[in-house]
Amino acid sequence: MREDFLLLNPGPVPVTREVREAMSEPMVSHRSAAFEAVYERAQTHLDYVFEHSTPDGASTSAGGTSLILNGTATMGMEAAVANLTDRHSEVVSVVNGKFGRRFARIADRHGDATQVAFDWGESVDLDAVADAVTDETEVVTMVHNETSTGVLNPVEAVGEIAAEHDARYVVDGVTSIGGDEFRIDDWHVDVAVTDGQKALAAPPGVSALYVADDAKPHVDGEKAPFYEDLDWHLRKADSHQTPFTSAVPLFRGLAEATADIHEEGMPDRIARHRRQSEAFREAFWAMGLESFPDLNEHAEFSNTLTAIRLPEGARGDDAPAFFDAVEARGVSISGGQAHLGGDIFRVSNMGGLSSEQILRGIRTIGEAFREVGVDADTEAALDAARECLR
Ligand SMILES: Cc1ncc(COP(=O)(O)O)c(C=O)c1O
């Protein structure tokens, strides 16, 4: 692989040399004091991320526990739902993209799920959510930052609806937590889920959950798959261990990555992500391209990834040549998922990217468009981005 390879996919994202080195340290037992110190370090920094993801660093939660699971965010999503439901529990899942749909499918497997569904890329209509959630609803699931479409969903407003009906609120903050604002108590979040490999800039393979103290009495681990019994995970977390063998190198990578976040500080990190995503958007607009999300007054553009419609000459059957031209320049970006393949491209600014890397991504995409015959003004795009990154 080339030395200057630049990973701009919305996960996994680049990890630092220190994270890579932490993962290659000699193995220890997951029951040793050395491992407990790793888990405790990761928990301390995860507590910081979950509890201080605000533009001014103010606390977001009166109390809760950060857990780390061996398994990616999908396991975290399932653990959250399965511990709060049984087969008869009414669950309302808000769906406007691939990951909202995944939550709905998980909810359907563990409870009695109703979807409030919108086309992928559309914004959530709060009236439709308010109509679907009733006093019988036990759990509401929601994706904060819909990675498949680049829409930042109104987690707070849906949280208010859930709270009015005393439903538990499970939120996927997989591509927002660690890169954008995320409030636990103000948004009525009971369980928040995130992934190692996204805005935390850790390796893939582990996920993190935050279980708010108020939600703990509702957790019933006996209802969940054995491996995801959150009562058990919560008990073991008190002594900085997991019920089963921990993925030691991944926990070490996560501890290192979250320590870096703590050092940068969430206010600066949120501001940087907002600048960088704005730079991507402004650059692509300056190239004459269109954003994919269809925003209403409650939705926003994602601050951690950007989804753009592919222009004539690079869409449909012409899309592979464009993506190949990007890849040939040592940069990796993503296309659309499922039926959006050939319609859009997506770039991430999650993790610790520098302004130079953002500009390189823009330059590469502009050059790749020109190579396939799309008339994109790369210099105008770079000027627009530089304005935002100042
Ligand atoms: C918003 C969101 N939720 C959940 C997931 C699932 O993560 P994983 O495939 O790592 O389990 C992803 C992955 O891209 C995601 O972006």
Characterize the structure shown.
InterPro entries: Aminotrans_V_dom, PyrdxlP-dep_Trfase, PyrdxlP-dep_Trfase_major, PyrdxlP-dep_Trfase_small, SP_NH2Trfase/AEP_transaminase. Pfam families: Aminotran_5. GO terms for molecular function: transaminase activity. This protein is an alpha/beta fold and 390 residues long. It folds into two domains: 6-11 and 266-389, Aspartate Aminotransferase, domain 1 (Alpha-Beta Complex), CATH 3.90.1150; 17-264, 3-Layer(aba) Sandwich (Aspartate Aminotransferase, domain 2), CATH 3.40.640. 38% of the residues lie in helices and 17% in strands. It is built from twelve helices and 15 strands. Strands 2-10-9-8-5-3-4 form a seven-stranded mixed beta sheet, with helices on both faces. Strand 3 (90-95), helix 4 and strand 4 form a beta-alpha-beta unit. Helix 10 (319-327) crosses helix 11 (355-371). It is globular. The two termini are 32 Å apart. Bound molecules: pyridoxal-5'-phosphate (PLP).
